[in-house]
Write a structure and sequence with these properties.
8-stranded parallel sheet, about 270 residues, about 45% helix, TIM Barrel, about 10% strand, alpha/beta
Length: about 270
């Protein structure tokens, strides 16, 4: 079994615009492996042998809470078909500028959603800002998993100050007990070697969604090879990486006896 802990798709009416906007913002550096729709996502999973995928939705404005929660509920209730209900694990999001963020987190939990995705660059905050600690404390108290974009982002090439290893470490020291996943191998790209190692001591998980494998290649391989097998989650960041290629990359680096943990067991344990 394979669980992709980091994937994206969009409502059909928005998918083409969302993909095109990301390509423009990154000046063509990102090139999609899919069209951004749910059906294309499901087809890609089938071809890659991926059984389930965490769908990472992001609220770039506070008012996005309601539509993202509606879509998550619709997927779980089978409104998008049995295949989506069985294969997609929808996450919602939380925005620190939301005046009722704690109440909305409770709604997310009550709906049966397992976690939330945040992206500090697109949401305009730093993980190290004490003003956001209560939001993450509320998520921790509810047992929600939090996954974040971590490290360098091609859409913000001059920024290194919101969600790198240092900022993640500050958050985790101030919000103990948070179930926290730092994507892109803990955000190692763009930072000094071994910057992410402190995160292991703080109980952080990392995922394997490395879009730029030729950047800081040695450090990415070191992390994937050396972190304990029970702290790494397989992730693709689809539609920006093809699932088949992501499976091959992870399998070529990690020892075979560790792959069950990376591909499924860790996700099952974290999500309950």
């Amino acid at each position: 079994m394979i669980v992709d802990f980091h994937s994206h798709d969009f409502p059909d009416a928005l998918a083409a615009r969302a993909i095109a906007g990301m390509c423009r913002k990154t000046e063509g550096f990102l090139y999609p492996a899919g069209d951004g729709t749910l059906e294309n996502h499901l087809d890609s999973m089938r071809l890659a042998g991926i059984d389930k995928a965490v769908l990472c939705q992001i609220s770039t404005r506070p008012e996005h809470h309601a539509p993202l929660l509606r879509r998550a509920r619709a997927i779980m209730d089978g409104e998008f078909g049995e295949r989506a209900r069985r294969m997609i694990i929808p996450f919602c999001s939380a925005h620190p500028a939301d005046p009722d963020v704690a109440g909305h987190l409770r709604e997310i939990r009550a709906a049966g959603v397992k976690g939330i995705k945040v992206h500090p660059y697109y949401q305009g905050f730093s993980l190290a800002d004490p003003a956001v600690f209560p939001m993450f404390r509320a998520a921790a108290d509810l047992g929600l998993v939090v996954t974040t974009h971590a490290g360098f982002d091609v859409g913000y090439p001059a920024r290194r100050d919101a969600c790198g290893p240092r900022e993640i470490a500050i958050l985790l020291r101030n919000v103990p007990g948070l179930k926290f996943v730092a994507s892109h191998l803990g955000g190692c790209a763009g930072y000094a070697p071994h910057s992410t190692d402190e995160l292991l001591e703080l109980g952080c998980w990392i995922d394997t969604s490395a879009l730029h494998r030729d950047w800081h290649k040695d450090e990415q391989i070191r992390l994937l090879r050396s972190w304990p097998s029970d702290r790494i989650l397989f992730g693709t960041d689809f539609p920006w990486t093809d699932g088949r290629e992501a499976v091959r990359w992870v399998s070529s680096i990690r020892e075979k006896e560790d792959l069950d943990a990376l591909f499924s067991k860790n996700a099952e344990r974290l999500l309950g």
